[in-house]
Each structure stands twice: as C-alpha cells, then as structure tokens.
Amino acid sequence: MNANQRIGDSRERGAALISTLLIATLLLIVGGALVLTTQLGTGLAIDSTTELQAYYAAEAGVNSALSVLRGNVAAGDGTKATFRNAVSHPNLNTWLNYGTTIGGNSAVSLSNSPVMGYSVSLTDPDNTAAGKEPVRLKLSVTGYGPRGSRKQMELMVTRYAFDFFPAATILVRGNDNGSSAVNGFAIGASDAKTYSGFDHADPTRSIPVFGVTQPIDFSTVLTNVEESKPNTVSAVDKVSQFNNSQLPDFLKTADNARDFLDGMQSKAQMQGRYFTTTPADFGTYSEPKFTFVDGDCTLNDGSGLLIVTGKLTSNGNNGFRGIILVLGEGVMERDGGGNGDTWGAIVVAKFDRESHDDRGFRSATYNMDGGGNSTTGYDSNQIDRALSTAGLRSLGVREY
C-alpha cells in the first residue's frame, strides 16, 4: 500500500458515523412531526367534540324555551308562560331551573360529566305596549359545553298560526275569470240583522264590511246591501273591491289555498282537532280552540279559529267569536231564525281542493237570509285570540 492510499483511507474515517447521525436526525424529525400531528389531531378531535356538545346544549335550550312558551311547563305556583309575562322574565327563570354556573354564567344544567348546560334570553322586537300581548318574540340561546366551548342560536317565533290581516269583516273571494258573480248573495232584509266594520275592540278603527275581488261581485253585493236595509250596515266603507296584492297569501292563488289547507290540516291532526263531521264543541270564549272540519258542518256556539272545507250552515241561535274560513266548497248559509252574533272576521272561497286545474277560484256562496236577530261585526281582539289557537310558529333560526 503506497502513501496515497493511506492518505485516502484517513480521509474516509468517520463517514459512517456522520451518515448514521444524519439518518438518525431525519428519523427524529419525522418521528417528532408524527407525534406533533397525532397530538394536534387528538386536540382537534377533542375540540370538535366539545363544540358539538355545546351545539347540542343550545338545541336543548331552544326546545326547552319553546316548550315553556307553548304552555307545557308551569311555574311553582301553576302559572304558565304567555308572551306577555315571558317578557317580564326574559331568561324564563320562572319556568326553567338555573341551578348551576358554567364559565361564570348562570345556566340550566344538562349534565355534570361532561359539563353541559344552556341559558336563554328573550326580547320583544316590536316593543309592544304594556297590557297587550306581543305577537313576536326573539329568543337568544347559549349552549355551554366542556373546556369553555359554547354555541349560540337565535330564533324568532310568533304566536300566530299564519299571517292574517282581514281586508273586510266578510270577504268573499270571487271567480278568477270574473265571468260569474258570487252565488246567492244575501245579507237578510230584516232590520234585526246588523253588520259592522267598526272594530268592536276599538271603535275608532274600521274596515269595510263586505269585501270582494271582482267588479261583477262588487255590483252584486252593493245592490243587495242597498236593497236590504242599508241602515243595518255600518262602516266607513260598506263594500270594497280588493286586488290580489291586498289579499292574504292563502287567497292569492288556488294553489296557495290548497297548500294552506294541507298545512292547517296537519296542525289540526297533531292537536286532535281534525274532524270530518260537526264536532261536539267549537271552543268557548274562555278557551278558544282551533277546529278543522274536513267536510260539511253546522256551526254551534264557539270561539277560536274555524276552518271548514265543505258547506258551513250557521244555526241562527248560535254565534261565534274569532275567524271563520270556509275554503273549498265555499258555501256559507244561515239556517232558520235566532239571535246568534258573530264577532271577528269571515272568509269564503270556492276552489277544487284536489285538482290543480287552470280554473283556480270559482264563485262562492254567502247567504244569510234566514230570520231572527243577529250581529256580524269586525273584532280585532277576537281575531288575535283566534290566530293564537293553532300553536307557535318559527319565523327562522340561525347559529351565530
């Protein structure tokens, strides 16, 4: 071995050690990254779980608040929530047990292991005057989970089953093509029958007594009013014609009316207030009810919201307080004499509920030519109570 070979060998000494150290370093880096990734993944999984638990807590709070507002939960003294007294207790603590503190916040406990709970805050977005029942409430619910997690939900609820602002005390939806007038329209020739568009709850306000949607109906109804003792009809406007944009949504098209009936029928079935013949009761003044009659019906004394898809016959001796919707067959008649009064609003519209044809609305029937004394008048208070009989309605919910 010569000198040059010995020099080369000396230069290569330690190379294996350096290579080993480099490989070990790389393996250490990769291993550390793997450990870090695993730790991050575990942390993310834990955070995701706690966030989900907070979300479920918020959902539970929403359902609990709605149950309170539906009157399903009574306070210790038996008091049930109304929209008015709920505003006076904005966290609903009269009906919900705020028995714990989570993250420094008073909360209703759902679980101690893991820690879960919620808190509720509600406001009246319309700032309803004292003494009157708010129509809408805004609920803000915070759900609390482990490790300081929280989720917030906000929803708007109304106690009205549907939006309804009566155009007239008695609104008769006309034939869409305007080719024929309302059938057999009669308000009765007796001075003992009176009709009013002045609000029974606030006489300073008034709506037309009779409302129609076609010129031919306007002429028919006006003639009948003028010939049937016009002094028995009192309002700023005795008869008015309305265009489609002035009508409630469920009267703008026959398809809207069909969808409306389907939705209200479902509500009635859930409440046990769906009937195919005349029911035993229509509610009372102290306890107005939602009643859906899928077929012909004879009206007895009652109060609340009444929807009839067949022919409605009004017994002369009986009255009603609230909203009467005769939708489908579109026939409302009075049978015999009597002294029954009706306060609220009435809508009559004829259409084929089953067939989505092109004819839409047809000519309805309104005939109150029976004998006896009676008053049919507008009453905003009775309308308000009627709209509250079919349960709460959510106007939208969001997470924020």
Q: What's the SSE pattern?
A: HHHEEEEEEEEEHEEHEEEEEEEEEEHE
Structural class: alpha/beta
Radius of gyration: 34 Å
Low-pLDDT stretches: 42-46
Share of residues in helices:
25-40%
User: How many extended strands?
Assistant: 22
Question: How would the global form be characterised?
Answer: elongated
Number of helical segments with 4 or more residues: 6
How is the main sheet built? 11 strands, parallel
The mean pLDDT is 87
Report how far apart the termini are: 83 Å
> What number of structural domains do the residues give?
2
Strand content: 25-35%
Question: What does the model show?
Answer:
By secondary structure, the chain is of the alpha/beta class. It folds into two domains: 1-159, no CATH class; 170-387, no CATH class. 27% of the residues lie in helices and 29% in strands. The chain has six helices and 22 strands. Strands 6, 8, 9, 10, 11, 12, 13, 15, 17, 19 and 21 form an eleven-stranded parallel β-sheet that branches. A six-stranded antiparallel β-sheet has the order 1-2-3-4-5-22. Strands 7-20-18-16-14 form a five-stranded parallel β-sheet. The chain is elongated. The protein starts with a helix and ends with a strand. The relative contact order is 0.12. Residues 42-46 have low confidence and may be disordered.
